[in-house]
Amino acid sequence: MLIVHGNHDMEDFSDVGYGYLGELFASRGIITVSVDENFLNSSFADLLGGLKGGLKKENDARAWLLLEHLRLWRQWNLDPQSRFYGKIDMNRVALIGHSRGGEAVAIAALFNKLPYFPDDARIKFDYNFGLRGVIAIAPSDGQYEPRSQETELTDVNYLVIQGSKDGDVQSFMGSSQYSRISFDKCTDCFKAGLYLVGANHGQFNTAWGRNDLGDAAGALLNLAPIMDADTQRRVAEVVFGAFFEVVLHERNEYRGFLANPASGIAWLPPVQFINQYAAANETPIANFEEDDDLTTGSSPGVRITAVDLARWHEIQVPLKWDDLDSEAALIGWNRTDDAVVPELHIDVEQAQIPGGQLSFSLAMANASPLDDEDAKWTPPESIDFHILVTDRDGHDASVALSSVQPLYPAISGTPRKFAFLDGVDSSEPIFQRYSIPFDRFVGVDPTRLATIRFRFDVTPAGALYLDDVAAAPVVSP
To answer: So what's the pLDDT on residue 425?
Structure first.
C-alpha cells in the first residue's frame, strides 16, 4: 500500500505524517510506504515567479509517480538480490491519498488500466498492477481532466472521508468522484463514503495538525469546534482498517461495518457522521441518470409517478464548490389536506427486482417545498415519512423512515471565524444511505414486488433529494 500526501509547504515534509497508519497496516501484514512527493508542493520560492509561479494542475504527475513507485516494488519482488524478493503480492495493491493526493490516487487508478498517457500517446503505460482499493482523504477533484472530462473509474473499491470543519477543501469534493465510480466486471466491488462531523483537513496527517491554512492565513480559522486529533485519527484507523480487511484480506464480515458504521459503534470514539455505501451487486431501481423523462427508472419496466407533490424534478445536486456530478430527484411537499397524501410512486411490477433489502440515499434540501425559490423557508428540524411496499397479490406494509434514522438538515458551519471570509454556502447536501430489509415489510412477498411508495404523511412540509433507489443483498453487521 502506498500513501501519498497533498499540497503543503515543500520544505516542511508531509510524508512523515502517516506513520500511525503505516504501523497499523504493517501489523496486519500490509507493506506500507509513505511516498515523498514534497518537491511537487508549494514553496515561498513560488513568489519569485509572480502570478505564474508554482505548479498547477500537477495531479497527473503525482499519480504517475505512484505507479512508478509500484513498478520499482514489482522489480524488487522479482529480484533475487532484493530483501523483498518473493515477499510482495502485487495482485493485492492499494492506495491512500490525502487532499491533492486524494485526487492523485483516483488518477493513478485510471492510469493503471490505460495503454497510453491520455494527454500524449507517445508515452506508453504498462502498469496493470493488481489494484484492489483506493482511499481518498478530503480529496480535491477536477484538477486533472483528461479530454476535459472528470475522471471516471470502473471496477475498483473506493472509500472517501471528509471532515465538516475542513478549512482547506471546504466542499465534499470526493463525493463527486464517488458518484463517478461504476462497476462492470467486478461483482463484489463497493464504494463507501464517510462525512465526519467536526473533523478538519490536517489532523489526518500528524505533521499538519489543526491549522489548515498555514501560519498567516490560519489566524482566520475557528479552531475551537475541531475535534481532538487522536479522535480524528482513531476514526481513520478503524474505517481504513475495515476497508483493507475486505479488499486486501477478503474478510467480508467487515462489509457490514462499512455499509453501516453505526453497527460497529463500539470500535469508534463518540463521533457523528453521515455515511454512503453502494455495491456492485445492487439492482438499480431509480438513480435518475437516464434521460429527461421523469417517469423512467433505471431498470427495464420501472415507472415513476407522483401524487400531489409541490415539487418534483431531477437536478444536478449542488455542492459548495461546483456540483456533485450526479442527478437526483428534488421532491417537495406541502400537505394542506389530509385526505390527499403526497407520494412518489415507483411501479416495479414489470421489472425484475430481487429480494434482500431496499436501499436509497437522502439529503434534506434547503430549498422551499414550493416551486418558488424566493419563498421564505426554514427547513424542519428533521423529516419523517413512511416507505410502503406492495406485492403483486395486493399485500402491503410500511416502515417509518425514523425507525431507521430520521433525515436531518445539512450540517452547517464555517471553518473560518467569520462567515463572509468563506465565500461559499455554510452547508451542502450530504447523502445518507438508508437500507431496509424487505422482511421488515411484514406479509409482503419481496420476490413479487409491485410498487414502492415514498409517502410523505408525517412531516407536514419539506424538501429533499432522493437518489440511488436500489434492491440489494442484505449486508450483515
So the answer is: 84
CA distances from 267 to 153, 236, 250 (A): 31, 11, 20
Nearest to 199 by CA among 168, 173, 177, 178: 168
**Dihedral angle, C-alpha 194, 160, 58, 130, nearest 10 °:** 170
CA dist list (Å): 474 to 241, 259, 265, 355, 356: 22, 10, 19, 9, 5
pLDDT, one tens digit per residue, over 204-218 is: 999 999 999 877 777
pLDDT at 117 over 70: yes
Cell of 264: 460497529
Contact 200, 167 (CB under 8 A): yes
State the Rg of the chain over Cα.
23
Complete domains list, the chain, with CATH: 2-281 (3.40.50.1820), 284-472 (2.60.120.430)
Q: Give the three-state DSSP class for 149.
A: coil
- pTM, 2 dp: 0.95
| Spatial distance between the Cα atoms of 241 and 405, rounded to a whole number of angstroms | 26
Query: Would you say residue 50 has pLDDT above 80?
Result: no
Question: What does the pLDDT read at residue 47?
Answer: 65
The span from the CA of 236 to the CA of 3, in Å, is 13
**Class of residue 295 by CB neighbours under 10 A (exposed 0-12, middle 13-18, buried 19+):** exposed
| Average pLDDT, integer, range 340-361 | 93
Identify the helix (H) or strand (E) that includes residue 109: helix 100-111
**Cβ-based neighbour number of residue 177 at 10 Å:** 27
Question: 13 CB contacts (<8 Å, ≥6 apart)?
Answer: 36, 38, 207
Share of the chain above pLDDT 90, in %: 79
The one-letter code for the residue type at 458 is V
